[in-house]
Amino acid sequence: MAKMGTSSRVAAAIVVVLGFVLSLAVVCNGGKTSSFVRKVEKTVDMPLDSDVFKVPPGYNAPQQVHITQGDQLGKAVIVSWVTVEEPGSNTVLYWSAYSKKQKSEGKFTTYKFYNYTSGYIHHTTIRNLKFNTKYYYVVGIGHTERQFWFITPPEVGPDVPYTFGLIGDLGQSFDSNKTLTHYELNPQKGQAVLFVGDLCYADTHPNHDNVWWDTWGRFTERSVAYQPWIWTVGNHEIDFAPELGETKPFKPYTHRYHVPYKASGSTAPFWYSIKRASAYIIVLSSYSAYGKYTPQYFWLEQELRKVNRSETPWLIVLMHAPWYNSYNFHYLEGETMRVMYEPWFVKYKVDVVFAGHVHAYERSERMSNVAYNIVNGICIPVKDQSAPVYITIGDGGNTEVLATK
Ligand SMILES: [Fe+2]
User: Fold this and answer.
1) How far is the CA of 330 from the centre of ligand 1 (A)?
2) Catalytic positions, written as ranges
3) For the whole prediction, is pTM greater than 0.85?
């Protein structure tokens, strides 16, 4: 790998401030990132009776409450939660200081995975929200009610500053808890999280014990019930286990985490886009077909054409497996997707690509490797001001060891 600026084991949760000065060249004031360095020693999962996994008290109390953006512009929010004793209400009650109480109805789903049966997983979308407004919401109507709040993003536009947090490969170890705490305590105050895949690592437990999906939902609620996390799938969401009779990829993930993929014309929840403030965010799936003529390929080809940089000057792509990786961990796993899509990223001047998967922090210069054809032999990354910066942030805290070589 040519000239990659590398520094391993830096803070696992980064906060990026996007600041915009009219439509001139973009200025990014990233501020100071944390000086925290994770220890190299392998961490372990927090025990099932940990505080952070506690079930909320009360009959049929909603648990694992989480929100994400519910449309392309940020005027809708998908609210999700799980009830255990009975389905209970699908209603979300919500209001702001300027509006009366309103209700929105959703649906619930359940699934089985080998010998595990899920709780009742509710998803309710609330729409037509006002931009830049604090809303309170209540779930669990009729039994144990729980109240949370969120703030909608400002209206999409070129001069709108916004602060995203970045987390990848979180898991639910003691180090995962440190990562989430660092994010919460970061003085830059992230307003939404770009999550680059690998959520709970349930698949690292015998029979992919889906109880660990539930604990992860309770562990992360303290952040994701109050601000949207924008989801990307990683390899630990595939849960493909033919030895257990489980052959439908992404089954637990797709039941639990909904995303607004239809709003961007996508046909599957693994690739989609949203606009938020001054950023256009494209989410890709490293683990769905991406070759020529595939649904993801067709979608991305159309999608990149839609981006209007005078409306959203920042063009950000999220994926799980990085295209550029100088560690021996997962080396070249992102290479085939890079070969397919990198010329488009240069053509459309993607600003930054965030990935996880490799358990380290790594940041590239703007560079590309798109000159190669079968006869010219030119296959080396070169500096390219039209190319993205690539940032890997897969050191979120899971129990697999850090990449150090
Ligand atoms: Fe991964």
Assistant:
1) 9
2) 330
3) yes
